[in-house]
Every structure is written in C-alpha cells, then in structure tokens.
Amino acid sequence: PYDERAWATMMLANYRAGRQADALSSFSRARRVLAEDLGLDPGPELVALERAVLDHTVPPFAAPPLSRDPHGGDGPVTSHARLPAARSLVGRDQLIDAIVATVDAGSHLVSLVGLGGIGKTSVAIAVAHRLSTGIDVWFVDLSNVVDADAAAAAIVRTLGISSDAPLDDLVDWCRDRRGAVVLDNLEQVAEADRLMRMLVGVPGPLTWIVTSRRAVRIREERVVALPPLPLHDHRGGDAVELFRTRATQVRPDITDLDVALVSEVCELAAGIPLAIELAALQLRAMSMDQLVRRLARFRSVVIDASGTRDYPDRQRSLRAVLDATTALLCDDALATLTHAAVAEGMVSLDLLADAADRADVDAVAHLGDLVESGLMHRVGDRLLVTPPVRQHLVDTVEPIRRGAAADRLGAAVDAMVADAEPHWFGRDAAEHWTRLAVDAAAIDATIAYRVETGRWPELAELALGLGQYWLHESRFVDALGTLDRLRSNDLPGGIGHRVDLLLGTFASYVSRSDTADLLEQALAHSDERHQPPDRLLVNAWCCLGAFHAHHHDQAELRRCAARARLAAEDSGDSSLVSLARDFAGYAAFYLGEVEDAIRLNLEAIDDARRQGDRYALVLLLTSTIEALVDADRLPEARALADEAFDLAREVELGVALATVLLMFGLVQIELDRPAAAHGVLVEHLRFVSDRYPDPLVTGDSLAQLAAAMAGIGDDVAAARLWGASDALYRDHGVDPDRRRPRTNQRRLDATRQRLGDDRFAALALAGSTDPDRVIAAILADTAR
Prior knowledge:
Layout: H1 4-16, H2 20-38, H3 44-55, E1 67-68, E2 76-77, H4 93-104, E3 109-113, H5 120-131, E4 137-141, H6 148-159, H7 166-174, E5 180-184, H8 192-200, E6 207-212, E7 221-225, H9 238-250, H10 259-268, H11 273-281, H12 288-297, H13 300-304, H14 318-327, H15 331-341, E8 346-348, H16 349-357, H17 364-372, E9 377-379, E10 382-384, H18 387-396, H19 399-420, H20 429-438, H21 440-452, H22 456-472, H23 476-487, H24 493-509, H25 515-529, H26 535-550, H27 554-571, H28 574-590, H29 594-611, H30 614-630, H31 634-648, H32 657-670, H33 674-691, H34 695-712, H35 715-731, H36 736-739, H37 742-755, H38 757-769, H39 771-783
Parallel strand pairs: 3-6, 3-7, 4-5, 5-6
Antiparallel strand pairs: 1-2, 8-10, 9-10
C-alpha cells in the first residue's frame, strides 16, 4: 500500500477504462493510507496524475509503435537499438519507478539533478530502457557540447535529421511527436534554459529527460534530485551492497566482508556511488582493514582515489567531480557552502542564514542550487554537507576564508545561546532546548574551533551559556571535557571563577571524586569576591549539599541548604528562592525530617502549577514521591507518579526522564506490581547506561530492580543485583544501607532470610565482582 507506482498504475487503468471516478477514488485512498500510516503526502508524480485525470489530459493508451530507421531504411528498429547498454544498478529501483511514473503522468521536462558520480546517467539509461518498451526513446550525449546551438546540432544528428538549421528543424520534428528524448550532461550547455524552453514549448506528448548538476529552471520542469545510496536498512544498506558488488569484481577471493567496516567506508564516501566504487577499487592493493584505516586517517583519499581507464575523464576521481561542480557556483553560493561545512553534521537554515548574513551573503537564495547539485543535502528541516564535500572545501578554500566562516558561524552560535539562556526555565524552555539540540553540530564545531585557535575567553563565555543545554541533552562528557580544558588555561578572574563553579556543578552530576573539592574552592572564591548571587551560585550550593547528603554529612548538608537560601533571598529572584526551597525539601528528607520535606515539596508543586511550568512540575512531583512512600502515604505517591509519568509523554524532559522512570518503578513495587516495575526499571537502566553516566544513579536502578525481582520471586537474581548495586555505592564512598529507600531495605532483608545468610552473601559477592557484566546481561536479555 505504500508503493505509489502501484497506485498510479491503478489510476491509469481505471481512467483508460473510462472510469474517472474510480481513478480519483484510488488517489484518495492512496493519500489516506500514506497520511495515516506514514504521515506523508503523496509524491508530486501521483499529485500530477490526479490533476491530469481531473483535466482529462492523460495520454490515451496505444500499442508500442514500430519505429522506422531514422536514416531512411525500411526495416523497423526498436528504441533499444538507439540506447546505450543498460548498466548494473544497485538500490535505484524505486527511484526509476518514480521517474517512469512522472513521464507516464505527462510531464514534458524531467530533470535528474545531483552531484557528479551520484548515478544520473545510469539512472537515465535505465529509465530510457523501461520507457522504450512502450514508446520511442532517443539518448543524446552532450558531454562535449558547450552551447545551445551545438546542443541542437548534436540532437538532430542523433535523431537522424538532415538539417541546415538544426534548431528550427528540431522544433518542427518535435510537433505532435510521441516518445522521449534523454539529454545527458546538460549542465555545461550555455543557455540551456533557452533551448529547453523552446523544445518543451512545442505542442505534443514528447517528453524531454535531462541529466544535469543543476536544474534548468523553467516552469514546466519536474526536478528529481538523486539522493546518495542509503547507508543502513534491513540488508545493511544499498551502499554496502554496491561496495560488496564492486569489491568482489576487483577481488574474487573476497567472500566475507565485515559489514561494519564496509558501512564505515560507505559513510566516509557519503553514499555517493562513484566514491563507493572508487573506494572498492583500492582493494586491488590493500586489505579491508588497511582501507578503512587509510580512509579514516587521510580523508582526502576518498576524493582522490582514481578509477579504471573506462571511467570518463570527468569522473576519474571524486576530486574531478567536485572541482567541476563547485566551479559552477557563484562566490556567494560557495560562501554559503563553506559556512555550512564548518559544522561536521547538520545545521539549521536559521543558523546558516545568520552566519552567512554576517558576510552579507543571502544563504537562502543559493540553497536550491546547492541542494540540487548534491553539494548539500536537506535532512528534514536541516542541511548537511557530506564528508567528501567538506574535505574538498578544506583542501581548496583558503584557510583565511575557512577561518572567517568558522568565526561567523561561531558568532551565530553565540547569539543563539544568548537568546536561549534567559528562557531555560519556564513555559517556553522546551522550545529553546530543542533549538540548541537541532544545531548541536554547529555548537560542537564552534567549541572545537575555539580550542584549536586558543580562544579561551570566547569559549568560556559560550560554555557558561551552555550549562543547562549540556545537562538536558546528557552531554556530561562534552561539558566536563570543555570545562576541564578551560580551567587549565588562564582566564580573567571573574569568568574563570564562574567556570570553576560550573565545573564543580557538572562534577556533582556524575559523582566525580573531586566534586567536593571543586565546589568548596569555587564557593570560597565567591565569598572572597562578594559575587552577586545568581542561579549558578545558588545551584552550586545545592549541588555541594547533595554531595554531602549522599555521603551522610548532616552538618554540611544543613550549612549548604542555609547558604543556598541566603543567596537566593539576597538575589531577589523569586525563581531562585523557589530553587532554594526545593533543595530545602530535598535536604529535609535526607535529614530524616520527612513530613517537613513533604510539606515543602507540596508547596513547590502548587507554585509550579500556578506558574504553568510543566518541566519544573515534573521534577517536583518526582522529588516528592520517595518521601511519600517513606511516610507510608502510598495513595498520594501513586497519584504523583501517575501524573509525572503522563506529563513525561508530553514534556521534553531530557535527562530528567531518568528520575521519572525510577520513581514510577518504586511506586509500582510498593503497589505489589513487581512485573510492571521490572519493565519500567529496565528502561531506566537502559536510559542511564546510554545518557546518564552517574554510577550512583546506576546503583539506584540496580537496587530497585533487585526489589522488583524479589517481588517476582527470583531471589537469586535479586541478590546478585543488590550486590552489584552495593559495589557501585561503596566505590564512591556511599553507604548502601542509607542510600536505598527504607522499603527497599525491608525487601532485601526478607530475601536474605529466604536464601540464608551464606547463600545471599555468595550471590551478592558474585554481582559485586563485575557490575558492568550484570548490567550488560540485563539489557541483552531484555533486548532478546
């Protein structure tokens, strides 16, 4: 039901049988299926066919005609005799179907556009052979033609027309002619648009199919941009299949290629068929491992690898293709491409336009040409410059111009982060998190460029604006790596001190061993400098207090909670006062003052509801649940867990989703639903393994899973899980008996009693020996 070619065939069959209503009904069914199942609209070919059915402009069906010999002979000659031999193609069947459907729908000009080496000529030849079973098809090679008059002369020669005025005679020949003419390599023909406007304007059902590195740009044109071969699907990817095919032609002794290695080569080749074929040719002189290492080390190898002698000169290497394609660009189009290539990944149109605008370049005006030429790809709402094209720009664009482009993209990133920073908290926070996540590649490129060029103050300002983004997107490793590097370089006093505060904060998020030292030093400097309190300072006191809570230093916990409250009150910022109060509830729970903790948290929940801040509400709901469970107020805990779980479906929580899953699992255990708890807690373990590198949180996950397994009746698995959890806690100086919820502790004691002390200890020791192995086994088992 997702095959638009099949729907088109049904529409044509109904229409030509005189059943227009049934043809239109088929289109409606196709549109509904695509929308409901895939969220897609019908493709342009199907839409065009619907319009033709409505307008009664669908060409009538006719039996395949016999063509006369264009040179005057009496014997019939098929279209195949006039076409180049069909080439072996991988992964283009659906594309060929779509192009044939476009021709069948009555399009007069179909342009196959894309980067050289993407397979335009091969696809055009395949389309020509498909069409030639029903209509006359001619193929004209324009690779040696440079202007419209010479192109007209080449076309009439191919058609067998004797002429002293090629263009006029060609126009006459086209009148009422039924069939298709393929014009290969049109991009180098000067005034190609004038030529095609004249030819397409001739009345009749004749279709022109052109291949070019850029569109003709006339109204009647239907542009089909050839994409790279897909890198991944259920077979490993068409790109992988093409590499396998070419590799075995070069080396018949190769029988078992490693799919992972081949995929890596194809990714470096960006799925471009020519690049993949040229890479496969390198196996004549090296092994697969050597090829991958060489391509990874010398990125230029991908674009400089040469083909065999039967490759045309323009495709002897991808370098030649890229040279020819970029030579067609104007200065502003090349500048737009260079700005986009700074990011080793996708970049949003808004950010690219902002960066290019700083060079007085209208990026939007050139995107169509760049995308159609295959130098840039559109991926959803973002744009991507592939590795080969990026490497070509590195090799050919002057360093000073590339550096200027990186500076302008960095300035655009700074502006984006500065715009988002005031909105990290509140109703519209999710919109700004998403905005930065969309341009993660540009952020990473800006950080890397500033590290490379030693622009430490600029990098520090950016890092200070990225704190909440790094946290939300689970970019802990990136954050700590950048902040540690900044701390090791000389920074002005004020900004250096703020970097220290942020570093200590992130160290606390992953339970790093130097957390307390980093935060104590940074906070002491704050006192010495009499720094005006802000969120960074208040949050640093909260993080230091949380560290002491986990390590059961009640005096230090009280001190930190008090300092956070005083700093928040001095700031005069109501949101910071709320933050300090939230932490006071957290501290009260760890101090054993459970009812005070619940009271403070419920007050904060009411505030969040009034303010409409759903992100803050989810965090507060989850921070209250454990206290309610501890106080045996299970119905209230269940209500808050259900509300938090429902909100998690609607609110972009980022790393905070981990807490929702953990607390929801805790409540399911207390409701005597161990199987439900197990499912949720496995997802929690998977989430923290992927995105939250805090060993204490991983320990919490294992401890709760142990309680769930005990509830299911698998005491052996529960004992191993408790052992693994305890090992993670103790490795980081935390007492397991104090870290675990008290209800969890009761289940542990019951399990020990059922197994007996000796057996429980042996199983727990087995789990504690290698917690990573225990985690891997759980995730592998659930994956199966």
